[in-house]
Amino acid sequence: MLMHDPSSDLRLRKALEGSGHRFTEQRAAVYRFLADTDVHPTADEVYLAVRQDLTRISLATVYKSLETLVGCGLAVKLTYGDNSARYDGRTDPHHHARCLNCGRVVDIHGKIADSEIEGLQSGTAGFTVTGFRLELSGYCATCVPEGGPDPLHA
Ligand code: ZN
Ligand code: MN
Which of 7, 50, 109, 124 is most deeply packed, by most CB within 10 A? Predict the structure, then answer.
């Protein structure tokens, strides 16, 4: 089993119990895996990883644990129109880039100014904007097409 920071278990326990959930070894294993990776795994990928240590865990338990963590604010769920979902152990505001070929999702480090968002919504009557999700699309280094993709022309 991976070494892990006991203070992260304490943080998990507090967050779970604060939202009326029990601390379980299954939830802890799922949380540790998510907190330690930046690959934005699907539930299946979390299951395959966590099963290495908890051989009797089921995909359904992994899925429910992920949803519990999201409900407690310990993880973020990234949903897509094709019904796939990925999970992020990083909960501070940040943006993503997603590969059009393999679906891989990576963090991007740039920021967008609030004033840019205000510019986008100007003239949109009858809608109160409270947040936004920015996602870049393109190809990861593994999937970049032969000869290079057509880049975005600004
Ligand atoms: Zn890719
Ligand atoms: Mn992320």
Answer: 50
Closest to 85 in 3D by CA, of 56, 71, 105: 105
Alpha carbon of 1 to ligand 1 centroid (Å) = 29
Q: What percentage of residues in the chain have a pLDDT greater than 70?
A: 95
- Ligand 2 center from residue 38 Cα (angstroms): 7
Q: Could you read off the pLDDT of 54-113 as tens digits, one per residue?
A: 999 999 999 999 999 999 999 999 998 777 899 999 999 899 999 999 999 999 998 888
CATH architecture of 1-91: Orthogonal Bundle (1.10)
96 C-alpha vs ligand 1 centroid, how far in Å? Answer: 13
Q: Give the distance (Å) from ligand 1 centre to CA of residue 75.
A: 23
Q: Which of 30, 35, 73 is nearest to 53 (CA)?
A: 30
